[in-house]
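Model the whole thing, not chain by chain.
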Amino acid sequence: MGHTPPITQWLHLDWVLLLMLGWLLVGLVGVLALRRLALVARVFFPAGGLLGLVLFGVALGAIVGSPEVAVLPIGLPGLPFHFRLDSLSAYFLMVIGGASAGISAFAAGYFRQGEGTPPGLMCLEYHVFLASMVGVILADDAYSFMVMWETMALSSFFLVTANHRIPEVRSAGYLYITMARVGAIAILLCFGVLQANTGDYTFANMRAQTLSPFWASTGFLLAVFGFGAKAGVLPLHVWLPEAHPAAPSPVSALMSGVMLNTAIYGVLRVSCDLLHLRLWWWGGLLLAIGLATALFGVVFASVQSDMKRLLAYSSIENMGLLFVGMGLTLIFSAYDMKPMAALSLTATLYHVASHACFKSLLFLGTGSVLHATSERNLGKLGGLIRSMPWVGWLTLLGVLASAGLPPLGGFVSEWLLLQSFLFAPGLPQPLLTMLIPVVAALIALVAALAGYTMVKFFGVIFLGQPREDKLAHAHDAGHWERAGMVWLALGCVALGLLPSQFIQLIDPVTQRLVGAGLGAKVGASGWLLAPNSLEQASYGPVIFLLGILGSFALAFLLVRSLYHGRLRRGPAWACGFPWGTARMQDTAEGFGQPIRQIFEPFFVMRRELPTPFDLRPRYRVVVEDHFWRWLYVPITELAAYLARLASLMQQGRISVYLLYSFLTLVATLLAVMR
Amino acid sequence: MSLTGLLSQLLEIVIAIALAPLMTGWVNQWRAWLQNRSAPSLLQPYRLLHKLFNKESVIADNASQLFRAAPYVVFGCMTLACAIIPTLSTDLPLAPAADAVALVGLFALARVFISLAAMDIGTAFGTMGARREMLIGFLAEPALLMVLFSASLISKSTSLTTIVETLAHREFVIYPGLALAGVAFTMVSLAENARVPVDNPTTHLELTMIHEALILEYSGRHLALLEWAASLKLFAYSCIGLALFFPWGVAEAHAPLAMLLALPALVFKLAVGGCLLAVLETISAKMRIFRVPEFLATAFLLAVIGLLVHLLLAH
């Protein structure tokens, strides 16, 4: 790694590249031990997790540092890889490192023999996936960015199709790779626009260009489309609910909690760093897309009956919220309102971290449930908190964070986002001033619906009576799985309780991107989080938690000392009805029914109702979204139609093909003669 | 943190916990009178609590720790809510811990815990109650947030103490936006406190109950804590209403003596509010569960319109 100043002095970037290399090495060694599960699981995955932990630490240190660059002469001759580590990339690297440490630890206990791809190959794909994500974040020219981006897409495709013998898994994988291809083309075109005909594809050159509003907007729109396909914003969301359930749980966790963030990184990199122009309608567009995505995602999440599909829709919702945050940032910076832009950008970045923690945690929780019960259908689960207390209680933390409840991580970002909405009336554009409170109202609705969804998720899986007999003997997660989940749950709690400290960490990033930061103000108010002043708004999660716990303890002690602590167990009361069975609890469908009724226009519903004469009555409801019918089906039909047209030329007789050659020759000659 | 602040904080918590069942008794008394029944004593809720605390707690065989912890968590949440709402004084050391948004989050936390606890036993009523409670919650929560936002826009702050101080010091003008917000707030608080058009606190009719279905499996001290928490919630919502729409008479930081006047003012305002609640409950009929989303959507829209009206007039 060639740096001209003293070669002995290691920069953060060198460490990160070394860690990347380490991951690749772990993957390669994994292939050598192709079918030796114990070795791969107990040694290689923990080693990968350790590297993740180191990356977390290194990136944490790099956030405050100045940008570091490196040029590596790998790849094509004359086209070296440019790498750059600035505070934005360091922040995302920190999220990747932190989340992947937990997920790798979990994966060490997760993979079993005889599940599709052999463990060694899985190890290779997994670690190449991790390394390529780091590469995406570090890349400083379009060439290396695209190489890394495609490596990321391909390695995750192979991970998704680990159980490739199941046809649904294969089709989910192909849907995923198709959407990834479509997005990658848009990103490539975006870089083509940004380099402004100079032929130099380094990001440094793109930063130096000043584009006309038309070309800048074109580049921006292409970036939104390309990265939006990866993030799963409307209407490019279709792959998420298919690919996440198909993949093994640690991979789902990695894709949902970590990989989706690279799309957010991409939008931020292009719109706040590479482009200099700030047009308010860019922000308005992101806001509208994000809002539609968030509402769509949460409404669909609440009617799902497959636990991983439910979480996938919840990821769509969270990506929507992140787009809303970025939209607000762009609007505020278009009007040069730097403190406000910093506030909404901080909310966005905070949500990136908290989403990475709680969504990975929830996916890992479903993984443990899946292993213990081999059941993904919510309608066949229930009561697992009694047989799997570790998974149950840790998942509860993730559920509370995901529902945006204080004092956990999800609430802080929601709080910051609502704060930035509240002070939007300072905007000079009257239309925006009017619309933004309505957006805030919808965000509040999305947050409340997320609570509904999460109560359904946790309540149906972990609470109540087991809906199947085998669930009573479900085994709890092993040590490695527990360790991974505890690490991520700690992340949720830390993000919830230490917002001021974490925002000071984000400060250099917002300073760089929008020219202002919350660090100084937040640092001044100590344990309270007050982005502006104490009079205006404040939130003290530690006091909040102590308040609840204090009155909890006081009530407990007072009741015990003044009265008694007698307790008797008996059969459930249920209004005196003694014949209640597990089948009488609400199913996932039942819990989603009010939502299906209220938001009926959102869904395409097919119901099969039994007639009174059915000997084996069966109720079935299939809920689909309109986008399949109105967008994707027409596109596939168009493609099939065009293919049929093209096949008319394909006669299969050599004379016809000779005729084609002859006609082409004549046409070329005519063109040349002109 | 001043000594008077600490004292007023403690006084506020004690008064909230002590007065909340009294307020429930007061509303019940008025309701009985208005409905031509002979009224129970004003102290009936205290007797009920005492009786329940004395009884042993019977819980289902399969109840988990979550079920046992939930009453304490809900009680803790409601106590904290009463501690941060400026009812007697705006000089509250705990108030910076949570602003209006965090207050809504606090109510949501309590709701999620009680719903999860209701699902824990796995009876048909419990899950039904949880589903209905969350249904009401997800519609009422954004409406409440919008009401609080309307007040925040006037005072340019989401801190409850600042809101109360600003609103109490304005000249007597009627903000049309705030009036709409007031209607929305009334509707939301009826729904959130399981009062008549949405739920009936005295019913045990299986198919219509919401709040009662949630706490069906509780008994003894757990039930007592939940009943107390429900009273505290009614108290807290009344106090939010008073703070937003009738903020006069609340003592401020530099006037510790005003506390003496603040208590009678609060009792008077709560008494009048309790009468109005009883009247509202008497003249309206309980609606079907699937009319509730329409009712709450109206509240939500009213709150948003209130916000927009305020912004339009401010320009």
